[in-house]
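Q: Please design a sequence for this.
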């Protein structure tokens, strides 16, 4: 019988950690290791369990994630592989970005990596829409991009979840209007943008689900492409991808955010008014699926070659 791969989820009690644990219970060839509740913040106990496993998954705030990486690094040649679900290492040198569909061969880069950063939920949609079109020259790297997005409240952390679950929470709200959201650096880096995009996130009073949209003036793009050109490039980029689909725009002109809940899928569409020369790129995903835990399990499978 083949030896099971051992995994320790540092921060397993949080939303993402629980989602990863639940998904991994259905993956053969994995043994999950845990610490007792009173030892979960004990550096010596965490370092000891890291020495026993093949992979550590970090589901922690950024500063705590950096501390965990330091603990793992202190093991030298016995250090496990690390998958970080925080924002701490998304654009850090020496880390591979955990979006397997980013470009041809990138899944192999993840499989070979010792350290992988799990993407943010919003950038997963934004980068999926932008990167193929920037690579193809249909969108210039310095184009003034605006990314609008709405997420279910489960993406907002413990305090936001409690506010919506217990008190009802607001029906809808814009946030990060300082235009300094922590997802902007990875949107730029892996979307291959040289001009800082305007990113406007929002949260609705529904638990999970996400829409990411990017409006475009087609007549300002090189060659003045049609919506069909954009869709064709997206379809070519993601051809054969198991989790990413490029679909026709709904004739109703409507799209709701919850249709992919409890899946790890990502859907991309191009809505357009050709007469007006305008288009909107739209990504739909579950912020807890392909936007978090589902993406993590996809990366875990690659890193452990399962």
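A: Design:
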């Amino acid at each position: 019988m083949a030896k099971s791969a051992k995994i320790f989820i540092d921060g397993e009690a949080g939303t993402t950690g629980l989602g990863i644990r639940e998904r991994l219970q259905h993956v053969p060839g994995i043994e999950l290791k845990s610490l007792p509740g009173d030892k979960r913040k004990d550096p010596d106990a965490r370092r000891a369990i890291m020495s026993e496993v093949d992979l550590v998954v970090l589901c922690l705030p950024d500063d705590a994630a950096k501390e965990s990486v330091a603990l793992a690094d202190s093991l030298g040649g016995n250090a496990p592989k690390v998958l970080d679900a925080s924002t701490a290492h998304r654009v850090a040198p020496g880390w591979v970005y955990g979006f397997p569909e980013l470009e041809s061969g990138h899944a192999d880069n993840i499989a070979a990596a010792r350290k992988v950063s799990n993407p943010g939920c919003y950038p997963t949609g934004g980068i999926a829409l932008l990167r193929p079109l920037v690579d193809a020259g249909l969108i210039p790297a310095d184009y003034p991009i605006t990314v609008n997005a709405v997420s279910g409240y489960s993406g907002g952390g413990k305090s936001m979840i409690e506010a919506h679950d217990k008190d009802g929470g607001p029906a809808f709200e814009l946030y990060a209007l300082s235009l300094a959201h922590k997802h902007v650096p990875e949107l730029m880096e892996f979307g291959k943008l040289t001009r800082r995009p305007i990113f406007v996130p929002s949260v609705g009073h529904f638990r999970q689900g996400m829409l990411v949209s990017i409006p475009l003036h087609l007549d300002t793009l090189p060659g003045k492409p049609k919506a069909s050109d954009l869709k064709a490039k997206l379809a070519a980029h993601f051809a054969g991808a198991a989790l990413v689909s490029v679909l026709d725009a709904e004739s109703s002109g409507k799209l709701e955010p919850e249709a992919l809940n409890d899946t790890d899928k990502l859907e991309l569409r191009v809505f357009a008014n050709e007469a007006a020369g305008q288009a909107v790129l739209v990504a739909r995903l579950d912020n807890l699926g392909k936007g978090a835990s589902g993406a993590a399990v996809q990366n875990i499978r690659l890193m452990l070659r399962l």
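Q: Thanks. Anything notable?
A: The first helix runs from residue 15 to 24. The chain has a mean pLDDT of 95.
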